[in-house]
């Protein structure tokens, strides 16, 4: 793969768009991962490089939200730890075993999330009764989503936010804000393991990091200044698009000789 200035500029813009989308609804990987694969980056290196730019995007979003008075309190410590452990397990496993079964499971999960959000128009509009305690949620849903992010990635923020609404009774805005920190944690852990294995294309990653900073900053301000109305339709759209994209990619691979 030849890295030209034009290609780097394209990835800069792609990462900006992904950072904005990812901050509001998750699913930025739908934009960046296919772009990396189309550019000829090998699959595992594409996953690894995607993590490098994802780290910066989620870090920027988390820092912006923290500066605005969010993402504070000791209650965040346990879910951050379990999210990191889940991501470590997923990243370790994806480099050692066949994970072809994810090609069918992930699209189904994404469609379920889209259906759930669509059928509940008031989802997360106000706090509701929690089905799990903070500790139960941190020990069950959080490491599972963290594992998914380590093994694959796209849609992680959406899964974290959906679990916060469904099991903790949070508003969609509050769940989405917390998802930024958890997603940042899983990205850091996963990137560290991928980098140790020499899988990251750092030139592309650095270019996309710059784009992510801009996109995530805009997305964070959009979220906190009336952009919450965009979260629900974006979650639905990104889940459906990611699901269809995954299915199409898998069917194409099956047809290859």
TrEMBL record:
<keyword id="KW-0472">Membrane</keyword>
<keyword id="KW-1133">Transmembrane helix</keyword>
<keyword id="KW-0812">Transmembrane</keyword>
<feature type="transmembrane region" description="Helical">
    <location>
        <begin position="101"/>
        <end position="119"/>
    </location>
</feature>
<protein>
    <recommendedName>
        <fullName>Probable membrane transporter protein</fullName>
    </recommendedName>
</protein>
<keyword id="KW-1003">Cell membrane</keyword>
<feature type="transmembrane region" description="Helical">
    <location>
        <begin position="230"/>
        <end position="248"/>
    </location>
</feature>
<keyword id="KW-0813">Transport</keyword>
<comment type="similarity">
    <text>Belongs to the 4-toluene sulfonate uptake permease (TSUP) (TC 2.A.102) family.</text>
</comment>
<feature type="transmembrane region" description="Helical">
    <location>
        <begin position="75"/>
        <end position="95"/>
    </location>
</feature>
<feature type="transmembrane region" description="Helical">
    <location>
        <begin position="188"/>
        <end position="210"/>
    </location>
</feature>
<dbReference type="Pfam" id="PF01925">
    <property type="entry name" value="TauE"/>
</dbReference>
<dbReference type="InterPro" id="IPR002781">
    <property type="entry name" value="TM_pro_TauE-like"/>
</dbReference>
<dbReference type="InterPro" id="IPR052017">
    <property type="entry name" value="TSUP"/>
</dbReference>
């Amino acid at each position: 793969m030849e890295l030209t200035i034009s290609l780097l500029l394209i990835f800069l813009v792609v990462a900006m768009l992904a950072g904005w989308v990812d901050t509001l609804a998750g699913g930025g990987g739908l934009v960046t991962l296919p772009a990396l694969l189309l550019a000829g980056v090998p699959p595992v290196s594409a996953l690894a490089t995607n993590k490098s730019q994802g780290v910066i995007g989620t870090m920027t979003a988390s820092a912006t939200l923290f500066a605005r008075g969010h993402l504070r309190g000791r209650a965040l410590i346990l879910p951050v730890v379990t999210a990191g452990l889940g991501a470590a397990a997923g990243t370790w496993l994806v480099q050692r075993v066949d994970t072809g079964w994810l090609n069918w499971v992930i699209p189904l999960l994404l469609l379920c999330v889209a259906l759930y959000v669509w059928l509940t128009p008031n989802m997360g509009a106000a706090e509701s009764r929690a089905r799990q305690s903070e500790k139960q949620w941190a020990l069950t849903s959080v490491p599972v989503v963290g594992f998914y992010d380590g093994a694959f990635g796209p849609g992680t923020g959406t899964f974290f936010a959906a679990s916060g609404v469904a099991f903790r009774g949070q508003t969609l805005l509050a769940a989405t804000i917390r998802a930024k920190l958890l997603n940042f944690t899983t990205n850091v852990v996963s990137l560290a393991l991928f980098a140790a294995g020499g899988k990251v294309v750092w030139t592309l990653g650095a270019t996309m990091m710059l784009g992510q900073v801009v996109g995530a900053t805009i997305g964070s301000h959009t979220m906190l200044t009336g952009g919450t109305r965009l979260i629900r339709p974006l979650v639905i759209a990104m889940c459906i698009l990611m699901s269809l994209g995954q299915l199409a990619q898998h069917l194409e691979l099956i047809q290859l000789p």
